[in-house]
Amino acid sequence: MGEQQHVKFPQEVIDEYASLGVDLQALFSAGHLGNRMGVQIVEASADRVVGTMPVEGNTQPYGLLHGGASAVLAETLGSVGSMLHGGSSKIAVGVDLNCTHHRGVRSGLVTGVATPVHQGRSTATYEIVVSDEEGRRVCTARLTCLLRDVRPADGAQLRGTGA
Prior knowledge:
The structure is a single chain. By secondary structure, the protein is an alpha+beta fold. It is built from 5 helices and 6 strands; from the N terminus they run αααββαββββα. The protein has a 6-stranded antiparallel β-sheet with strand order 1-2-4-5-6-3, covered by helices on one side. A hairpin with a 3-residue loop joins strand 4 (109-119) and strand 5 (123-131). The protein is globular, with a radius of gyration of 15 Å.
């Protein structure tokens, strides 16, 4: 759990980040928190990001998928979409996340699909639908990210060289 699989990216995204010397798989991964929760990003483009997360290990005391776990999955997927929309010259920073929880899940895998609602120059908003293995909607989330210019220190961190 938490080991990052190979993510399917559009070729133009692969080429853009490779020319900058940025580790695309690490940059658009689930991050440390998502990895601990078992989030796996399966597909990633500015128009659609798909990821999965196990219910096991991410439950609340009643044995149901924790709402915060759904929020982590949603914010991860929406942030990846926002960063891909912004391109290599922008950093996506979440400024608003809301989640509506529709049904409980006790086991299995949930899948989140993030699609854009708005893709602007300074903000991007994604709707993220989290479903259970039967395709039933578990959670609907909306994430808005601020797209700000990359600063020199950000570029060093993105390349894994520190500030």
